[in-house]
Amino acid sequence: MEEEHSGGVRRRWLVDVARWHPSPAQFQAAAALLPPHHRHAIARFVKEEDRKRALISRLLQYSLVHRVLGIPIHQIDIRRTIEGKPYLENGPPAFRNFNFNTSHQGDYVSIASELLCLVGLDIVCISKPQGETTVEFLKNFSSYLTVHEWDCIGRAAGSIGMLAEFYRYWCLKEAFVKAVGAGVGFGLHRLEFHHVEWSNISVYIDGIKSKKWRFCLFKLDEMHLASIAKGHPEDAIHSFKTTLSNVVVEEEEFYAALEIPEETFTLQTVEQLTQLYS
């Protein structure tokens, strides 16, 4: 059953939040579709743009679970680990390791899901630093990247090139951390990425090259990048691992899932996300 459904479970959706300009009544109507604890979490954001991204992120989660697994909206139970990793509490047994991840930054909110592999997603906006030079800005992150990564950034052409190179590394590191379910305490310096013109991307974890992870970078537009990380369920941290039905998978089955080529994101509108509730 898993092989039959694996293509349908694996989704990559993207919403251009900058194109959505709801009135206060429209925003409240969309938020009212979610359970109360999600509405309360959204209301805690001070800035309107942050509230929009938070709302769409949660609508994406419910919409994806409903469309992929066929669970009625009112029966979907999405919770979070102590580190903040969202997961489906009541998934069907056949979809033993179904997991998803969301990200929002700048103009976009996105979601990715997998049936067997862990999946992490991150979006970054390549924006020029305000009130400081590019070099000064990058120094703020000196402890998070390795010597090799900083050397690659330093060889980039000009300040824009250096920023773009930095954000690629940052995006990949964040996708990995989100895939395993770790929180802000994870040492990003433990990860070192190697690549060939940003393809054939590999990761070294604590100095050891991992064969259990695959990464892909996407250029959403001139200012936004997205990354997808896929890896073995046994690498999930404890709190997230307990939400998976079976972290012990056959090697052949795992690598077959890991090597499925990445596809581009499918654009969704807020109207598409909310129509499921009508």
Q: What report would you give on this structure?
A:
- The protein is of the alpha+beta class and 278 residues long.
- The chain has one domain (2-277): Ribosomal Protein L22, Chain A.
- Helices cover 36% and strands 24% of the residues.
- It has ten helices and twelve strands.
- It has helices at 2-9, 24-31, 36-43, 48-69, 134-139, 147-154, 158-180, 238-241, 251-258, 270-274, and strands at 12-16, 78-80, 86-88, 99-105, 108-114, 118-125, 191-196, 199-205, 208-209, 213-219, 224-231, 266-268.
- The strands form four sheets. Strands 4-5-1-12 form a four-stranded mixed sheet.
- A hairpin with a 4-residue loop joins strand 10 (213-219) and strand 11.
- Helix 3 (36-43) runs antiparallel to helix 4 (48-69).
- The protein starts with a helix and ends with a helix.
Observed structural traits:
EC 2.7.8.7, 12 strands, holo-[acyl-carrier-protein] synthase activity, three-stranded antiparallel sheet, 10 helices, four-stranded mixed sheet, single chain, alpha+beta, 278 residues, Ribosomal Protein L22, Chain A
